[in-house]
Structure formats: C-alpha cells, structure tokens
Design a protein that fits this description.
Layout: H1 8-33, H2 37-57, H3 61-82, H4 87-108, H5 116-121, H6 129-148, H7 150-158, H8 160-165, H9 170-192, H10 194-209, H11 215-240, H12 244-264, H13 278-285
Length: about 290
C-alpha cells in the first residue's frame, strides 16, 4: 500500500481517516461512557433532513445540515433528560422523520440527482484538501474544549449527582457535549459516511473501555484503535478493490468480535485494567 501514497487521493484518504479516527475517538468515548450511543445514531440519521434542506434550498452543505442536526440533537437531548423512560422511542421517531424529510426534499429538488449511497458509506477516496483543513480545525477545537472541561466532563460521565454537588452546570455541559457530537457527525459524515461515523464512534471506545484506567486513556486508545482500523481497511480496499468505507467497517467489526471472543474465553482477569468508575472520577475531579 505504501506505493499508493504517491497519489494525492490516497494521501488525502489516509489523512481523512486518521483525522476522523481521532475526532471520533474523543467524542465516541464520551458517547459510550455517557450511554448516549443510540442518541448519536439518531443524530447521524436525522442529519439527512439537513442534507435534504441544503440541496432543496440551494444552501451550503454545512449551513443546512449543521443547523438541522443541532436542532434535532438538542431536541433529543431535552427528551433524554426529561423523559428517560420514553427517550429511546422518541429518539427513534425523530431519527426516522429526519431521514424521511431529507430523502423527500432531495426527491423534490428539481434537476438534481443526489447519490444517497455516498452519504451512507462516504467517499473517502475523493476527499479534497479543503475538507481536510476543516476536519483538522474541528479536531483541534474539540480537543481543546474537551481538555478545558475535562474534569467536569469526567464528573458528569460517571457521577451526575457528584457533578452537581461540585457546582458543575450539568444540563449546560450535557447540551454542549451533544452539540459537539452533532458537529462531529455532520463534518465527518460527508467524508466517511453515516455508517462509518457510527462505527468509529462506538466500536473503538467499546473495545478500549475494558482496558483503560482513565477517561483520557480511553480517548487516546480509541483514537489509536480507530486509526488501526482505518489503515487496515484502506489497505484491504486497495488490495482487493473493495469499497473503502465498507472495508474499514468490516475490519472494525472483526476487531469487535475478537474483543468479545477474548472476554468469552476469560483472558481478562479481575486484577487487570478496569474502566474508570465513579470513585476514580470523583478523585480525579478533586
């Protein structure tokens, strides 16, 4: 695969995959530990409504999609806080309606035929340099925000009541986290596709959670594991002439199954590394 790096499109694809892995490693960790993976999937699918709005009204992609996704994300966040016992049902409805609105608006767009498959699996091999700069800026901004609010996010993620006692603005921080998640999904989905975004947000953090002793270790480990999946998937796609996004997802899925097999065979001992718990969060926030 090294010889293919002489081509601009392969270098761009590799850079896009690595940037997506880092961004999704950070935000995916927060999604997993806060148990909002289903909400993340809802945002990703509801973003289709924004895609439809952008094409129907001729707006820039980011303007239409980001606005719609943020509105849907905040609505889902409000529902998950106020009606937790019904949150999954309502999120599912918003998810489905958002996708339906997007597809219908694209159908009604005169003289324009949009390939919806490109938004499902992305077009990582056709990523322009401008998108890489946007992803880089977004990645730096998200990393800085998470670093600045790290202790508050740690307390919120593992002990909400403890966070309130410490004076953490729980609701405001929760909505800010959901907003960052929506921005991540919208900006990455155009590059790697909806399905790969969900895979990178969930699979690496799930695997690493069993080994990490802190939230920061989980973020770093998830980013590195996502990068491994991306590189391996791109090599597989190049070697066997496969769709790159699907190949990356296949590699990630294989890694997921291997991690389950390791757990099943009992290779992890009780004395080994454990995920961060509430007590660790409390002590880290002191």
């Amino acid at each position: 695969m090294i010889e293919t790096l002489q081509f601009d499109f392969m270098r761009h694809a590799l850079a896009a995959g690595l940037l997506a892995s880092i961004i999704c490693g950070i935000m995916g960790t927060l999604a997993v530990v806060n148990r909002i993976v289903f909400l993340s999937g809802g945002i990703a699918h509801a973003a289709y409504g924004g895609i439809g709005l952008a094409f129907f009204f001729g707006w820039p992609y980011l303007a239409g999609t980001l606005g719609f996704a943020l509105a849907a994300a905040f609505l889902m966040a409000a529902v998950s806080l106020k009606s937790k016992h019904r949150a999954d049902t309502i999120i599912g409805v918003i998810w489905a309606v958002g996708m339906a609105i997007g597809i219908i608006l694209i159908d009604l767009t005169p003289g324009y035929n949009v390939d919806l498959m490109s938004y499902l699996f992305g077009s990582i091999l056709t990523v322009p340099a401008s998108d890489l700069y946007i992803m880089l800026a977004m990645g730096v901004a998200i990393a800085l925000l998470v670093a600045f609010y790290y202790k508050d996010l740690l307390a919120l993620s593992y002990d909400e009541e403890f966070a309130r006692i410490r004076g953490v603005p729980v609701k405001a921080l929760y909505f800010a986290m959901i907003g960052m998640l929506a921005v991540t999904i919208v900006l990455v989905i155009r590059v790697v596709g909806l399905i790969l975004v969900i895979a990178l947000l969930t699979i690496p953090p799930f695997i690493v959670e069993k080994y990490a002793r802190s939230l920061i270790q989980m973020m770093v480990g998830s980013s590195l594991l996502g990068a491994v999946f991306t590189i391996a998937g791109l090599w597989l796609a190049y070697a066997y002439d496969l769709t790159s996004g699907a190949a990356i997802i296949l590699v990630a899925g294989l890694g997921f199954l291997i991690s389950l097999l390791i757990d099943k065979l009992g290779f992890l001992t009780s004395s080994g590394p454990q995920p961060v718990d509430g007590g660790t969060a409390a002590s880290a926030a002191d």
